[in-house]
UniProtKB/TrEMBL annotation:
Example GO molecular function: DNA-binding transcription factor activity
UniProtKB keywords: DNA-binding, Transcription, Transcription regulation
Keyword Acetylation: no
Pfam families, A to Z: GntR, UTRA
Protein name stated in the entry: GntR family transcriptional regulator
Organism, as annotated: Tsukamurella sputi
GO biological process: one example: negative regulation of DNA-templated transcription
Domain HTH gntR-type: 33-101
Amino acid sequence: MYIEVVGVFTGGSRFGHVRQGLTCILNGVVAAQPLHQRLAAEFRARIASGRWPEGEQAPSEAALCEEFGTSRGPVRQALATLRADGLIVGGQGRSPIVRRSVASHSASALGSFTAWAREQGHEPGQRTTLQARVPATAAIAELLGIEEGAPVLELHRVRALDGAPALVETMYFVWELGKRLMEFDPDSGSVNRFLLDSGADLSASTHQIDAVAASADDAAQLGLAEGAPLLRVRRVTTDAAGEVVEYAEDRYAPGVTTVVVENRLFAAPSRALRSVPVRRDA
């Protein structure tokens, strides 16, 4: 058996007419790479090179058909491949949009938004919409493990990446910790960094991640339509003694981040098959 890859011209327009393509010869039988795959490779190259800029419209199906001298079928297949790979969005009935690069958050390191943004090469920002001492509602009291009506610090901010709204942030602190923040300007930067620098005991946090629909307030703050999907991260922070000191909820706009979860086996398998215990809190 032998395999040979050669360049071929089929003459007249791009991919079959103008551009050199690839042909695979397997045991002397010619098997050209399908047109939609060559188109998909070309479109990926245009995105990678910036010819199709992130956040901008790509050419329409009609324009691509004209450029490459082909029918809509291969173009649609190629665009569908890019859509499945997360490189473009939309496209049915209108020009697709090149998706912006989305930075990832490790689930084991969900913490300071400011530090994460700078690690990703973005400039973080924030706008405070509420900073007040309030009595804990029944729901917040249960989450913080305090009595209903006990004082807590409630803090609301809109966080930004490179000047664009990225998430709505809501935090509740037990008063012993929250009163320190009354001396802090939340518009100036990281709450976590201020608390740690002031000696606060922030030992561990647990996160719950799901998706919710944007409320009217979320939509107004983030510049989205009401009901738009948001990534929600709920966080409970404890001190070294295991006491809850903060409850927070972040609601990310679409396309801001993804969450990466890394799993490891808790025990190496022996030669014989055996069950492996599963952590109930995983």
